Amino acid sequence: STHRKQRSSGINAEYGGEQEMKLEDIIISSIINCRDWSGFSFNTLPNDLLLKILNDVQLIENNDHFTHSCLMHLHKLLSPTLEELYIQKQCPFEITDSFWSAISLKCPYLKVLKIDQGHFIDEYSLRNILIRCSVLSKLQILGNSEIENIIDPVRVNINKEISDSDSPLNLTFLNISDCKSVSGASLVTLLFKSSSTLTHLNLSGCCQFDSAVLKTIRWCTKLVYLNLAESDGMNDAVFGQISQSCTSLRRLNLSWCENITDHSIISLCENVPGITHLKLRRLSSLTDVAIQTLAKKYNEQLVKLYLDRCDEVTNVALKSIVEFCTSLRRVRISWLYNITDEIVIDMLERFKYLEEADFSGCKLLTNDSLTSLSTSPSVISGSLKLLDLSWCNRFNNLELVLSRIPDSSLTIVDYYGTIHKNAVK
Fold this sequence. Notes:
This protein is of the alpha/beta class. Helices cover about 30% and strands about 10% of the residues. Strands 1-2-3-4-5-6-7-8-9-10-11-12-13-14 form a 14-stranded mixed beta sheet. α10 links the parallel β8 and β9. The two termini are about 50 Å apart.
């Protein structure tokens, strides 16, 4: 009945079981037409339907009563049984300090907290959550430039001295990518307190940390994933210490770390045996020596390799990749101006499990590089899904190339970014 009342004084959303019309459609339509929110309540509305309403409520502007009702209901959802909480980017209203405080008081067994871009959490509230939610294992805060001093700096020095009253954290996953206002002292404290449990660390885009701060990553000896993209303070000396301590690493991203040279990659190969995913984008000092070393070291266990814009890398190094790293599933060698057709032909012939290949911006490539495409093992098996040739200006008639493999689900991107693909029969 509320669906047809254009001037409803309020809505009491009870779950009525089976309906001829979808309940979510009734409620959302009523919400949009409602004028007075003083009587709004959620009561027994299922959580999945509530989330649908919250995602669509951005259609409504300046509804203070509705926002208040939403927050009141969110408070009711907080309980000792809550283990995971995601504050998504599309959430259209501001999460208040009282809500963050309620989390630390009502959710002692919270294990996962993820906060997307656009939501503010003050340092005091986050500190309380970290301290009181003692089983919290995954913390992700994306691009929140307002966060500073997550935990009050404790007495931590290079010898890891800390007072008996300071309890450790149980974090296994820490992602503060693009949080440029997090202080170095806070990161040092987080790493120290989580050093015995942390396995995943993402600091990409946090260019504010200097080498002294980044050096403390070596305390986290159980790391299997490390993302240091755009870390201005990272250099060969610091990474050398990290590689000697974090020997369990499997996935590593050093992209845009301008002070990284061959020495870091050689140190990685000497100390870390199990690398499977490696991103080394835009490392201008990287040469063929480092690439040949990692190809021989990690050979068939390497499944992802990104070398975009590594200007000093030539065909010599890529021939080693073709020879040893035949299990690669994703490879990016875009904007390497010396790469020739021969390398692409060899990759398509030898990489049996290839899923994505990016050769964009490689100006010397021509149609000749695709002569063996129809007989490529990855095309025949159907594993190859994407071939990016954008900004390669010597290709033509890509539709004809695809027509020779009509049963493939392969997608090719041409110079202008146009997508060419065939549907699987």
